[in-house]
Amino acid sequence: MRALRLAELLLLLLFALLALFPLIDSTFYTQLITKVMIMAIFAMSLDLLVGYTGLVSFGHAAYFGLSGYVLALVAPQYEAVSLWWSLPAAMLVCALFALITGILVLRTKGIYFIMVTLAFAQMVFFVFHDTKFGGGSDGIYIYAKPTLVIAGFQVLNLEKLNQLFYLVLIIMAAVYLLLRRILGSTFGRALLGIKENEHRMRALGFPTFGYKLSSYVLSGALGGLAGYLAAVQYGFVNPEILSWHQSGAVLMMVIMGGMGTLYGPVVGAFAFVLLQEVLSDQGFLGPVAKHWQLAMGIFVILVALYLPQGLAGLLRRRKAEASDGSSDA
Amino acid sequence: MAQAMPEAILRTESLTKRFGGLTAVDTVSIELHVGEVHAVIGPNGAGKSTLTNLLSGDLRPTSGSVFFAGKDIAGLSSDRISRLGIGRSYQKTNIFLPFSVFENCRLAAQSRTPHAWRVFHGAAEFPDINLMAEEAMVAAGLSQRRDMVAAALSHGEQRQLEIAMCLATRPRVLLLDEPLAGMGPQESQDMVELIQKLAGRHAIMLIEHDMDAVFAVAHKLTVMVNGEVLESGVPEAVRGSPAVQTAYLGGEDFLNG
To answer: pLDDT by residue (tens digit) across B158-182?
Structure first.
């Protein structure tokens, strides 16, 4: 209870700091933090599967990339597309893809589930990489960012860095609150039960497949939301965003941050992207920067060794110490 | 059909389960009635647990039928069977260790209600579910442990929780697989009393090795050996049966167990 309060307080503080962040007025850092927040949304969507349903997906990039490609394909070449329908369309395509593949992959368990989710993501990767449909390995440029128009009035201009920043910040907070709410419901408790012991849940009368499929579809749609925002930010899509490296990176964010906490993956996204930025900065680390993946690997190993519950585990440890202290006193 | 007995709520007909060359359950026909404890005993490997798994849907029968309230339910999935009103407990304690006692029961009760998809309501906001959970905890004698994490309970209390979760689903048939396993004398005594109390409103199949407990609660007794029913009837008659005496019980030691 106390850990949750502390975590929520820190999250509020983080939100306030982020809300003030554009005051720094640096193009580079505003873009960087926008990217981090998009990855945080992506990581939260995966935590729903990994941390709350017990399904370790190694193919989450499929939704991230698919959604970006939907935006690129529905946008007229030199004109802006409406966000009103292109975002729901992108998320719907992801949800449908999750529904169809979910019916198949959810019949497998454990290591097989990891492999089959990877296989489906690789299929999507090669469809876009090896056909002209999505511009092949070069990808597609999105020249004009989507617009948000209400009654002829342009509410948001996403060409402006700060406006995109705030849109992403609000969506990140909304996704966090939405998932918190859902996970606190009877549906969320059933997911936790399935993660803990699916066999027992079935014996208690839960049709577990339907629950897992719902979680899988929701996770895919929210992964698509992150991918859409990323495509808006970068202004282009290419098969890279569908690659298994992307699936691995987001999985690392979730595990490093602390799965099954929702705020852990947010912390994980910040740690991962910012660390990657620092470690690969040639101006800062010189020629060593080329080998940033080595340093990142060491960091991940250290977290795994000393913080088995991830960075979020730091909060829990503090809570344990606090309650020890109070019982002594 | 035209028997004096009211119709059995659960009845098997020539129920058989083969694993390759091994016939674990061989043409077993038994009946369970509301208000009765039907104990099934037999040596290890007699097929008692397999029989439980066939009735609960954890295993599909190779052949034969299972009738619940007149309907053949053989081969249905375990969650469907549970929702029909057949609850089971496990030989090896099978509870959600990180959850509180209440949450274990609440989750079990939740499976009976259509609230599952109301994702914007807190899980504990449904009075009907909470009531079912509270009643199950009281029935199983766990209300003192309500907010304790299940992992912190004693072994006996975990066995009680196992039963409480089952009760929270409001079953009509209870399949209890060795509920006394690993329990101390006092805990066993409490469990026997609980089973006696539950017998009034449920049909109970009890698998148990503790003969004192079996003879204390059973209205009917079935002895299984090598997957087959050796003898079945009222406990005193079965105890006296020469076939059972020679083939299984093997003398007073076992009976006084």
So the answer is: 999 999 999 999 999 999 999 998 8
* B199: nearest Cα among B173, B166, B181: B173
Tokens of A100: 């169809």
Q: What share of chain B is helix, strand, coil (3-state, %, to 5)?
A: 40, 25, 35
Q: How close are the terminal C-alpha atoms of chain A, in Å?
A: 20
Q: If one looks up domain A2-328 in CATH, what number appears?
A: 1.10.3470
CA distance B7 to chain A (A): 25
Task: Sort B253 into a burial class: Cβ within 10 Å, 0-12 / 13-18 / 19+.
Answer: exposed
B119 and A193 in contact by Cβ < 8 A? Answer: no
Tell me the ipTM for this assembly. Answer: 0.90
CB contact under 8 A, B121 and A202: no
For residue B94, the chain A residues in CB contact (below 8 A) are 197, 199-200, 203
Interface size A-B, in CB pairs within 8 Å, comes to 84
Chain A residues in contact with B76 (beta carbon < 8 A): none
**Out of A145-149, A289-293, B150-154, least confident range:** A289-293
| Chain A residues touching B112 at Cβ < 8 A | 205
Q: How far is A50 from chain B (nearest CA, A)?
A: 17
Any A CB within 8 A of B73 CB: no
d(CA B226, CA B155): 30
| Sequential DSSP letters for A9-71 | HHHHHHHHHHHHGGGG--HHHHHHHHHHHHHHHHHHHHHHHHTTT----S-THHHHHHHHHHH
Residue with token string 């070449």: A77
Distance CA B191, CA B142 (A): 12
| Domain range summary for chain B, segments of one domain joined by + | 1-85+171-257, 95-170
Class of the CATH-defined domain B1-85+171-257: alpha beta
Structure tokens at B45: 């490997």
Taking the Cβ of residue B112 and every Cβ of chain A, the question of whether any pair is shorter than 8 Å is answered with: yes
User: Smallest Cβ distance to B118: which of A185, A197, A199?
Assistant: A185
Query: First CA to last CA across chain B, in angstroms?
Result: 38
